[in-house]
UniProtKB/TrEMBL annotation:
CDD domains xrefs: RRM2_TIA1_like (cd12353), RRM3_TIA1_like (cd12354)
Keyword RNA-binding carried by entry: yes
Gene Ontology molecular function: RNA binding
Organism encoding this protein: Danaus plexippus plexippus
Keywords from the named record: RNA-binding
UniProt domain RRM: residue ranges: 23-101, 129-201
Signal peptide: none
Name of the molecule in the record: Nucleolysin TIA-1 isoform p40 like protein
Top-level lineage group: Eukaryota
Length: 212
């Protein structure tokens, strides 16, 4: 079974089975180091996987930061979406949802379904105060991050990775960090729509996001 990048139904080259008979999950915010096998291993406990892949740029072969996982049973796919959304995989918390055949939303529609405070707050452990902000291809500086995030509370630390286009902002409280994610996710910063989610907590580098 073959699944296109946007989850369209396509023909299986061997058996002629339509892909729509399977249940496809979109997995976003993948860390660059995540391979297809890592993705499969993470979702394997939920049931039989019929297809799984990390989408890569055809020229550079670098991960585009998202992938697809397909299950044979709808109930197993639903369980995977519910359990895995917001969980840590590699160095980022991932987003899971049903894969759709709709084209990407225009910029002016990105905020049509805003995040809620409770939804974001419950995606991470009570002690996590670190925000991941990515998608800035140019002009990323500590000053820009300070200006963007200071309205939401006291900032303890800012770490900028200019060559990778993302930064981590650590607030003094989780409430401040949550407000920042809700407000800045999908907002235009320096002319580019950015993605915000929970960053890895300070301390043990092996901390899982859901650890209590």
């Amino acid at each position: 079974m073959i699944l296109s990048e946007h989850g369209e139904d396509v023909w299986d080259c061997t058996g002629g089975v339509r892909a729509r008979e399977h249940y496809h999950i979109f997995v976003g915010d993948l860390s660059p180091e995540i391979e297809t096998q890592n993705l499969r291993d993470a979702f394997a406990p939920f049931g039989e996987i019929s297809d799984c892949r990390v989408v890569r740029d055809p020229q550079t072969l670098k991960s585009k930061g998202y992938g697809f996982v397909s299950f044979l049973k709808k109930s197993e796919a639903e369980s995977a979406i519910t359990a895995m959304n917001g969980q840590w995989l590699g160095s980022r918390s991932i987003r899971t949802n049903w894969a759709t055949r709709k084209p990407p939303a225009p910029k002016n529609e990105l905020n049509s379904k805003p995040l809620t405070f409770d939804e974001v707050y419950n995606q991470s452990s009570p002690t996590n105060c670190t925000v991941y902000c990515g998608g800035l291809t140019a002009g990323l500086t500590e000053e820009l991050m300070q200006k963007t995030f200071q309205p939401f509370g006291t900032i303890q630390e800012i770490r900028v990775f200019k060559d990778k286009g993302y930064a981590f902002i650590r607030f003094s409280t989780k409430e401040s960090a949550t407000h920042a994610i809700v407000a800045v996710h999908n907002a235009d910063v320096n002319g580019a729509p950015v993605k915000c989610s929970w960053g890895k907590e300070s301390g043990d580098p092996n901390n899982a996001q859901g650890a209590q």
